[in-house]
From TrEMBL:
This is IclR family transcriptional regulator. SUPFAM superfamilies: GAF domain-like, Winged helix' DNA-binding domain. The keyword Transcription applies. PROSITE patterns: HTH_ICLR, ICLR_ED. Residues 4-66 form the HTH iclR-type domain. Keywords: DNA-binding, Transcription, Transcription regulation. InterPro entries: GAF-like_dom_sf, HTH_MetabolicPath_Reg, Tscrpt_reg_IclR_C, Tscrpt_reg_IclR_N, WH-like_DNA-bd_sf, WH_DNA-bd_sf. The keyword Zinc-finger does not apply. It comes from the Bacteria. It comes from Nocardioides panacisoli. Residues 67-249 form the IclR-ED domain. Pfam families: HTH_IclR (PF09339), IclR_C (PF01614).
Length: 258
C-alpha cells in the first residue's frame, strides 16, 4: 500500500490522460482510475492549479496540461528508457540473430524509440520515431494486454478506432479482447503479416516499479525464416524482464515457451 495515496492517484490520472487521443470527461477518468467522483473532481482541480491538467470548461473535459508536457520534454532530453534498454536489446539481437526494437504506447499507436538491426537483415518499418497502430503490432498487444480493461475500452470506444493496414487483425473491441486474452495466457504477444506482409514478430512487456507496462521489446523476422520460435520467445521475455528490473520492476521467472 502506498504511503502517499493522493500522489499515486494523481500519477494514475496523469498516465490515463496521457494515453488518450483527446481530452475526456470526468466520468471516464473516474471509471478508468477507480476513485469516487468527488475525490477525482478535487484531485483534478489541484492538478489543474499546478498546470499538469487542463480543464476545457465548454466541453466539460480534461486533458494533459503544459506542466506535463514540460516533464515529458525532460524525459525526452534524458532518454533514460532508451539508455537502459539499448545494451540488453543489442545482446538480444546477438542471441537470436534477428532485428529487435523497443516501443512505447502513445494513444492508440506504438512509438518505436530504439531499434537494433541484425547484420544482413533487411530494414523494417519499425524505425526510430515511427508510429504504428497498437492493435496490429506485437509490441502494442504486449502492452495493451496488461492495461486495465477500462483503459483499453477508452482507447477503442468504437470500430472507427481500429486501423486496417492489410485487411487482417482485430477490427472490434470484442476481437481485440480475444487477442489480448490469448496474449496474457501465453505470456507474450505475436503478429504475422499484420504490420508488414512477409514479416512476423513476438514481443513482451516491460514493467515499471508499479507493475505498469511502460514499453515492449519485440523481435521481428521474415515469415518462413529458420527461427527457433520457443528460444526466441524466451529470449525476448528474459530481455523484457532484465529491462524491467533496471526500472525497478519485477523480474518474473521466465518459463519454457510452448
Amino acid at each position: 500500500m502506498s504511503q502517499v495515496p493522493a500522489a499515486t492517484r494523481a500519477l494514475r490520472v496523469l498516465r490515463y490522460l496521457a494515453a488518450q487521443p483527446e481530452p475526456v470527461p470526468l466520468e471516464r477518468i473516474v471509471a478508468a482510475v477507480g476513485m469516487p467522483r468527488s475525490s477525482a473532481y478535487h484531485l483534478l482541480g489541484a492538478m489543474v492549479a499546478e498546470g499538469f491538467v487542463v480543464h476545457l470548461e465548454d466541453e466539460r473535459r480534461y486533458g494533459v496540461g503544459v506542466a506535463a508536457f514540460e516533464a515529458g520534454s525532460g524525459y525526452a532530453r534524458q532518454a533514460p528508457l532508451q539508455r537502459i534498454a539499448r545494451r540488453p536489446l543489442a545482446a538480444l539481437v546477438d542471441q537470436v540473430g534477428q532485428s529487435a526494437h523497443l516501443a512505447v504506447l502513445h494513444g492508440r499507436d506504438v512509438l518505436y524509440v530504439v531499434e537494433e538491426r541484425a547484420p544482413g537483415r533487411p530494414p523494417l518499418v519499425t524505425d526510430v520515431g515511427v508510429r504504428l497502430p497498437a492493435q496490429l503490432t506485437a509490441s502494442g498487444r504486449a502492452i495493451l494486454a496488461e492495461l486495465p480493461p477500462a483503459q483499453v475500452r477508452a482507447l477503442y470506444p468504437d470500430r472507427a478506432a481500429f486501423v486496417d493496414r492489410h485487411g487482417t487483425g482485430p477490427r472490434s473491441l470484442t476481437a481485440l479482447r480475444s487477442v489480448l486474452a490469448e496474449t496474457r495466457r501465453r505470456g507474450h504477444a505475436d503478429e504475422s503479416g499484420e504490420v508488414t506482409p512477409g514479416f512476423e514478430s513476438v514481443a513482451a512487456a516491460v514493467h515499471d516499479h508499479n507493475g505498469h507496462p511502460v514499453a515492449a521489446i519485440a523481435v521481428t523476422y521474415p515469415a518462413g525464416a529458420d527461427v527457433d520460435l520457443p528460444r526466441t520467445v524466451r529470449a525476448v521475455r528474459r530481455t523484457a524482464a532484465t529491462v524491467s528490473g533496471r526500472l525497478g520492476g519485477a523480474r518474473p521467472t521466465v518459463p519454457e515457451a510452448r
